[in-house]
Amino acid sequence: MAKTVVVIPTYNEIGSISGVTERILKTVPEANVLIVDDNSPDGTGRLADRMSADDPRIHVLHRTEKNGLGAAYAAGFAWALDRDYDYIVEMDADGSHQPEELPRLIALLEAGCDMGIGTRWIPGGVIKNWPAYRKLISRAGTAYARILLNSKLHDLTSGYRGFRAESLRTIDFSTVNSQGYCFQIELAWLFERSRGKIGEFPITFVEREEGVSKMSTGIVVEALAKVTGWGLSSVIGRAPERLALPTAGTAR
Fold it and tell me: Which CATH number fits domain 4-235: 3.65.10.10, 3.20.20.70, 2.40.40.20, 3.90.550.10?
């Protein structure tokens, strides 16, 4: 059976991390969970340590500073690759991604996808507890990125993803410099431009009930600036180099 780890970055998620982790391990008992904590002042890291002491499937990576979602995921991915996991999954800590949908994501990787994405904006996708303006902003941002990057993917900012380790190893994360949610766009675009096999499946996205959203004006500005820059670079032939992925083809 393929070794699977779910990487969850945390910053002040003490109210949700225990429940999310419990649901993951109940849904996929053979999986491991890696909590990547950015020195949360609310004690999330200490709680994660207690959880790890009680269950050998739970691991904790402590980082000394909060310097972006991209850096946290890069550290978590490096930890997982060093330990020879076959499938590496990313998921939010706040309960917005449903652990019960993990088997569908893992099935895409088992079918040969380099990357699987849980998508909100395809038939079957559901968003709960978002006001209309949040949906409008998200859909408009996705449409803008798809147009500028000539992408066929339907949810470039989704943080519910899985990767085959052999494909993730091809990425030099020192060249991936997006810090906020733009990291998700950059990573998906790298895989897509390299003609990696990508599978999408509809998810139910639920607005957090615990904690405070990490979305900020700075994160939005970073995403708009970088997507615009990448799009213009593609037009004039100066886009970043493609990855040398081990598989080819695209599945959606």
Answer: 3.90.550.10
